[in-house]
Amino acid sequence: MNDAPYPPGRTDDELARLDVTVLLRYGLTAGPGARRTALFGDGAAAAAVVLDRLGTEPRSVAFLADTVPTGGRSPIPPGRYSSGVIQHSSPDERRPANDGPKAAARNRTALVVAAREVFSAGGLDAPLSAIARRAGVGQGVLYRHFPDRGALVTAVLEENVRQIEQAAAVDGATLAGVLGVLTWHAVESAAFIGLMHADEAGGRSGIRAHASMLSERVERSLRGRLPDGHRLGAADDLMLAVAMVTGAVTGPTREERERRALAAWRLLGVEVGPVRPYDG
């Protein structure tokens, strides 16, 4: 195997935007002698992403899937190389992640669960590679289900927003009760706080548009339970108050974050019901 230099690090979004030809040239290096193919680091991941996105099973997909977890430094397995071409893998050799609709559904669920945990701990700009690792799948599988970060953020935060909408839709629901549900999600999830500050998403790929859409759904739910003459009834006051409260939700423990959230609502003169998830 030749001593090709290790490529410079690239972010997930940078890898996803590269041209297919560039990705393959970046990821595949032919070795002399035994005519093996070496894959290196981000290049291996990048090539796997592109091949996975093609939705096909080209000769090198199974090998890429086997090689990417090692950082791209494993040689081609014996018997898989003939006349300079990597051979088709048998169905039994393929990764379970590519084995039919049921596996695809399991992978998607695992990615959403992992993303919820990673986003909760690290916010909306946590590394996508960390999410794939926690879910136990390759980055190519992640990109198959979620083409960009914004799509994954939407899937993760959908449940938060849905609970607020459900709480607001109950007959006799009050603004205080819905704010209690919203506050619970803010206390529990750093990612939900990021949603409430969507205008700060800046240039991060896809996040701002997706987060703004979800934030608008939250506002509609709250405004539907806003009494006439309420102090937050002015055009921008409602979501400004929500942003102020979620901005105050800091602290090392859940109890401290909830205490600060309730103190912020109290300083704004807004009544809040029990801080709890919507339980139907």
Secondary-structure blueprint:
Layout: H1 12-17, H2 20-27, E1 28-30, E2 37-39, H3 41-53, H4 61-67, E3 81-82, E4 85-86, H5 100-122, H6 128-135, H7 139-145, H8 149-169, H9 175-188, H10 190-196, H11 207-223, H12 237-248, H13 254-267
Antiparallel strand pairs: 1-2, 3-4
Helix pairs in contact: 2-3, 3-4, 3-7, 5-6, 5-8, 8-9, 8-11, 9-10, 9-13, 12-13
Organism: Streptomyces pratensis (strain ATCC 33331 / IAF-45CD)
DNA-binding region: 127-146
Domain HTH tetR-type: 105-164
Descriptive report:
- The chain is mostly helical and 280 residues long.
- The protein folds into three domains: 12-83 and 90-94, no CATH class; 100-145, Arc Repressor Mutant, subunit A, CATH 1.10.10; 149-267.
- Helices cover 56% and strands 4% of the residues.
- The chain has 13 helices and four strands.
- The protein has helices at 12-17, 20-27, 41-53, 61-67, 100-122, 128-135, 139-145, 149-169, 175-188, 190-196, 207-223, 237-248, 254-267; strands at 28-30, 37-39, 81-82, 85-86.
- The strands form two sheets. It has a two-stranded antiparallel sheet with strand order 1-2. Strands 3-4 form a two-stranded antiparallel ribbon.
- Helix 5 crosses helix 6, helix 8 packs antiparallel against helix 9 and helix 9 (175-188) packs antiparallel against helix 13 (254-267).
- The protein is elongated.
- Mean pLDDT is 73; it is low at 1-8, 25-42 and 54-98.
